[in-house]
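Q: My labmate handed me this sequence with no annotations at all. I'd like to see what the chain might look like in three dimensions before we decide whether it's worth expressing. Could you predict it?
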Amino acid sequence: MALTVQKSPTCGCCKLWMDYARSYGFTLTAEHPASMDAAFAAHDIPAKLQACHVATNADGQVIVGHVGIAQVLEYLKAPPAGSRALIVPGMPVGSPGMEQGEAFDPYEVLLLASDGTTTTFATVASPTDQSI
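A: Here is what I predict for the chain of 132 residues:
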């Protein structure tokens, strides 16, 4: 699967997330927009849901932030009707690309609907919940 990742050229955690996705067979292309604000605006991602990068595939599915590969694959296999993005807001410690030793903060993966509402797509309670 191929994804285009918009990120800052200096963001190390984005590079780590890309390395993580590549380790599961994804083909990734990095783009470095002049403004990440513009990148999020192009996908109508509200500020409270933003993270440090945006990934898209050829079908227009959007992945925002440090989403685990288990959730990425599930979402891309069958995007729920009316959805437009899968999101991990912020930068939770222990999420892919945000590893800090054994530290881990449980987090939610959100589904952003076309009407702007969010629902929980998955709860990641441990590191094993984000991998396959």
